[in-house]
Design the sequence.
């Protein structure tokens, strides 16, 4: 089993609140990712990082931000939550070694509802 | 633009029947190919992967997939489906350059009936 943890598992929050979704992995992986998964299942890459102090935006425009101060930790922050942010957020990581063959290991996700 | 297509949004099969989930990609060269499964309320779990060698790869839970270069396909198969296989299945590719994020298909939802 992959050792990647997301908290909280479920979150219901009011509009305008600031929230941080936590993601930690204990595998020493350099690469980490955040995906947003809509109700129709499709996964959208919103942020990724290839190492400490490295972050990139993904394919889907997002109002969230990320940081990568430590290898094992990749939190995602929404400064002001809106109902349009209601979704499932999946964190993943992969090893630098193995090149393109390295699979992603996923956490169990955070299901966010903004009221 | 690089893309991954899973033509079937939803498939229903009877328990014990065979299964094939389709995946096509559009890349110039052979990419790295993956299949993932997602159970309700969970993250994605790797079923199998391919990057070179034997074009028929075996994965976990009795799944296999066959890479066909001529068809740009990487279809997932299982000879006999179990009720516990009901889940969502995602095909994903990474270009051969390696240092880019995975591109996922939109997924296929599998339902299993008795």
Sequence:
């Amino acid at each position: 089993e992959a050792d990647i943890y997301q908290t909280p598992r479920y979150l219901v929050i009011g509009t305008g609140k600031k929230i941080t979704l936590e993601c930690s992995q204990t595998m020493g992986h350099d690469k980490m990712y955040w995906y947003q998964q809509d109700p129709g299942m499709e996964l959208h890459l919103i942020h990724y990082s290839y190492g400490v102090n490295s972050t990139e935006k993904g394919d889907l425009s997002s109002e969230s931000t990320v940081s990568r101060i430590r290898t094992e930790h990749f939190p995602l922050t929404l400064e002001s939550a809106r109902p349009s942010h209601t979704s499932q957020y999946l964190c993943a990581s992969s090893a630098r070694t193995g090149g393109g063959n390295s699979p992603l290991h996923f956490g169990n996700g955070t299901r966010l509802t903004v009221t | 633009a690089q893309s991954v297509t899973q033509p079937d949004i939803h498939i229903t099969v009877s328990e014990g029947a065979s299964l094939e989930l389709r995946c096509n990609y559009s890349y110039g060269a052979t990419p790295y190919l993956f299949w993932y499964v997602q159970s309700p309320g969970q993250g994605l779990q790797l079923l199998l992967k391919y990057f070179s060698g034997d074009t028929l790869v075996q994965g976990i839970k009795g799944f296999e997939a066959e890479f066909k270069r001529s068809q740009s396909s990487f279809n997932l198969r299982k000879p006999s489906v179990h009720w516990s296989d009901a889940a969502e299945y995602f095909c994903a590719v990474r270009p051969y350059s390696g240092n880019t994020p995975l591109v996922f298909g939109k997924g296929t939802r599998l339902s299993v009936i008795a």
Q: What stands out?
A: The longest strand of chain A covers residues 43-51.
